[in-house]
Amino acid sequence: MGFSLKLCPLVFLLSFFLAFSFSLSFSSSSATQLCSHEHATVLLQFISAFSINKSASSECEYFSGVKSYSKTLSWKEGTDCCFWNGITCDNVTGNVIDLDLSCSNLYGSFPSNSSLFLTKSLQRLNLSFNDFKLSKIPREIGQFVSLKHLDLSYSEFSGQVPNEISHLSNMLEVLDIGNNNIKDTFPYWLESLPKLQVLILRSNKFQGFVRDTKANSSFSKLRVLDLSNNDFFGPLPVHFIENLKAMVNPLEDDNSAQYMGGSFSYEYSIVVILKGLSIELEKVLTVFTSFDLSKNKFAREIPKVIGKLSSLKGLNLSYNNFSGQIPHSLQNLTNLEWLDLSSNELVGEIPQELVSLTSLSVLNLSNNQLVGCIPQGNQFNTFGNSSYEGNLRLYGFPLTKSCDGNGLPQQPPSSFHGKDHELWEFGWRVVLLGYGCGFVFGLLIGYLTFHNGEPKWFVTLFNGQQNQRARNVRKARTRAQRRN
Ligand SMILES: *[C@@H]1O[C@H](CO)[C@@H](O)[C@H](O)[C@H]1NC(C)=O
Ligand SMILES: *[C@@H]1O[C@H](CO)[C@@H](O)[C@H](O)[C@H]1NC(C)=O
Ligand SMILES: *[C@@H]1O[C@H](CO)[C@@H](O)[C@H](O)[C@H]1NC(C)=O
Ligand SMILES: *[C@@H]1O[C@H](CO)[C@@H](O)[C@H](O)[C@H]1NC(C)=O
Ligand SMILES: *[C@@H]1O[C@H](CO)[C@@H](O)[C@H](O)[C@H]1NC(C)=O
Ligand SMILES: *[C@@H]1O[C@H](CO)[C@@H](O)[C@H](O)[C@H]1NC(C)=O
Ligand SMILES: *[C@@H]1O[C@H](CO)[C@@H](O)[C@H](O)[C@H]1NC(C)=O
Ligand SMILES: *[C@@H]1O[C@H](CO)[C@@H](O)[C@H](O)[C@H]1NC(C)=O
Ligand SMILES: *[C@@H]1O[C@H](CO)[C@@H](O)[C@H](O)[C@H]1NC(C)=O
Ligand SMILES: *[C@@H]1O[C@H](CO)[C@@H](O)[C@H](O)[C@H]1NC(C)=O
Q1: Which residue of 39, 291, 350, 474 has the fewest CB atoms within a 10 Å radius of its CB?
Q2: Hey, what's the signal peptide range on this chain (predicted)?
C-alpha cells in the first residue's frame, strides 16, 4: 500500500506529462490549419454577391456530364476553407490555388470590386455553368498573377473581353470563354501570352476579320483553337496560321509536351466538339490539337498553308463561305482524324492525294459544288454517302452514280437498245402500275369523301402523324436553343 502510495505522484506526473504533450501536439496540428483567415473572409465575401438558383446551372449536366450542386453551401465561417467544396489549397503553404465553382447554381451580377482578385496564389479558376446575368467580365481579372486556367464558359457573361486578361501571368495556358454573349472582335492582344495552349471563343457574338499577327511568336503554343459559331468573316490570315508552331510541329518543343496535369493531381479536361459529339478529353490533350472555325462567314480560298499544321487531329471549316478548290496540301495533315468542309462553296475535284490520310475516320464534304470521281482506297472505302450529299456532280462509290475504271464519270445511257430497252420497258410498266394504283386510291378517297363528308380513319391517321412530328421538331428546337 505504502509502495503504491509512493508511486502515485509519479503516475500523476507521468499522466500529466502525457496529457500535456498530447495537447501540445494537438495544438500544433491546429496551428497548421491550412486556410488563412484572410482567404476565408475573401471567399465568403465573394459568394455573398450571389443567390443560389438551380436553373442558373441547368446546362451543366447536359453539356459537361457533371451534376450541378451548390458547392458554397459547405462554406461556413470558422471552418478550414481548404476543406470547402470547390477549393484546393497548396498543401504546404495553405494558400488557395484552385477555385472550382463550376455548376454551383450561382445566380447574380458578378462583382468587380471583390478582393478575390487579389488572391495572388490562385492558379485555376473555373466559374463555368452559372448565371452571372449578363455581367461584364471584370477588368480586375487581370490581377490574378499566377493564373494558368481560366474557364468562364456557359455563364452568361456579356460585353467585351477585357484586354487586362493579357496582363495575366505569363503562365496562362487555358482560356475558355465559350458559350456566352460576348460581342467583340478577335482578341489579338492574347498573342502576347507565351504559354496559351487552349483558346475557346465558340458560340458568342465575335465578329469581323481575323487579321494577321505581327510578332513571329504569336500563339506559338496554341493547340486548340475554337472560334466556331460566331460572326467572323473574311479570308483566313495566312501568317497567323503559319505562326501556330505547336500545330506545325508539336515535337519540336518539349515544354509544351507536359501540357496539363504536370505535377498536380488536378484533372484538367475540356469539352471539344469532336466528330459531331461533345466529348470530354482528359489529359489526352498532350497530343491533342484541333482547329474549329465552323459556323462563321470566313470566305475565299482555304489557304494552302493550312497543310503545314501537321499535328492537327481535327479540322472543321464547315458552314462558312469558303470557295475555290480543296487544297492539295491537306494531304500533309497525316494525323488528321476528322475533316469537315461541309456547307461551303467549294468547287473542283476531291484531291486524289487525300487517300493518304490513313488516320481519317470522319470526312464531311457535303453541300458544296464538288465534281468528278470520289477517290477510292484506304479510308475512302469506309465513308458513307452522307459524307458527300449535296454535291450534284460527284460520282463513284459510295454514291449510286458510278465512275468508270479511268476515274471518269460514267456517261448516262444515251440509247434504249438491247437490255437497256427491256429495262426501260420494265421501268415504264412500274410507272404505269404506280399511276394506276394512285388513280384507284384517289377514286376511293374521293368516293368516301363524297359519301361521308370526310374519311375519318384517313384524317386521324394523317393528323396523328403530324402531331407527332410537330412534337419532335419542338423538342429538337428547344435543345438546339439551349445549345446556342
Ligand atoms: C433563377 O434563374 C433564372 C435564370 O437562370 C431566372 O429566370 C429566375 O428569375 C431566377 N429565380 C430567382 C428566384 O432569382
Ligand atoms: C503535397 O502535394 C504534393 C503534390 O500534389 C504531393 O506530392 C505531396 O505528397 C503532398 N504532401 C502532403 C504532406 O500531403
Ligand atoms: C462592392 O460594391 C458594392 C456596391 O457596389 C458594396 O456593397 C460592396 O461592399 C463592395 N465590396 C467590396 C469588397 O468593396
Ligand atoms: C519572322 O520570321 C521571318 C522568317 O521566318 C523573318 O524573316 C522575320 O525577320 C521574323 N520577324 C521577326 C520580327 O522576328
Ligand atoms: C470547369 O468545370 C466544368 C464542369 O465541371 C468542366 O467540365 C471543365 O472541364 C472545367 N474546366 C477546366 C478548365 O478545368
Ligand atoms: C463541325 O462543326 C459543325 C458546326 O459547329 C458541327 O455541326 C459538326 O458536327 C462538326 N463536325 C465534326 C466532324 O465534328
Ligand atoms: C460568299 O462569297 C462570295 C464570293 O466568293 C460573295 O459574293 C458572297 O456575298 C459571300 N456570301 C456571304 C453570305 O458572305
Ligand atoms: C507536303 O510536305 C512536304 C514536306 O514538308 C512538302 O515538300 C510538300 O510541298 C507539301 N505538299 C504540299 C502539297 O503542300
Ligand atoms: C455531313 O454534314 C451534313 C450537314 O451539312 C450532315 O447532314 C451529314 O450527316 C454529315 N455527314 C457526316 C458523315 O458527318
Ligand atoms: C445512301 O445510302 C443509303 C444506304 O446506305 C441508301 O439507302 C441511299 O439511297 C443512298 N443515297 C444516295 C443519294 O446515294
Answers
A1: 474
A2: 1-23
**Contact present, 86 and 301 (Cβ < 8 Å):** no
What pLDDT score does 248 carry?
84
d(CA 441, CA 81): 77
**Can you read off the three cell numbers belonging to residue 38?**
484572410
3-state secondary structure of 407: coil
The cell for 147 is: 493564373
Cell of 334: 497525316
Pocket test for ligand 6, best of 294, 344, 366, 379 (most atoms within 8 A of CB): 294
CA of 333 to the centre of ligand 8 (A): 10
- pLDDT single digits (tens) 340-372: 999 999 999 999 999 999 999 999 999 999 999
According to the model, what pLDDT value does residue 221 have? 87
Amino acid making up residue 406: N
Q: Which residues pair with 150 in a beta bridge?
A: 125, 175
Q: Which residues contact 424 (CB under 8 A, 6 or more apart)?
A: 416
Name the CA dihedral angle for 481, 231, 287, 61, rounded to a multiple of 10 degrees: -20
Residue 415: HSE in the Cβ half-sphere, 13 Å Cα cutoff: 3
Q: Kindly report the pTM of this predicted structure.
A: 0.77
Distance (Å, whole) CA 37 – CA 78: 8
Answer whether 41's CB lies under 8 Å from 96's CB. no
Top mean-pLDDT range of 211-220, 299-308, 411-420, 444-453 = 299-308
Measured in residues, the chain has a length of 484
**Which amino acid, 324?**
G
H or E element that contains 181: strand 181-182
| Ligand 5 in reach of 59 Cβ (< 6 A) | no
The C-alpha atoms of residue 339 and residue 151 are separated, in whole angstroms, by: 27
- Determine the Cα–Cα distance for residues 122 and 34; give it in Å rounded to an integer: 15
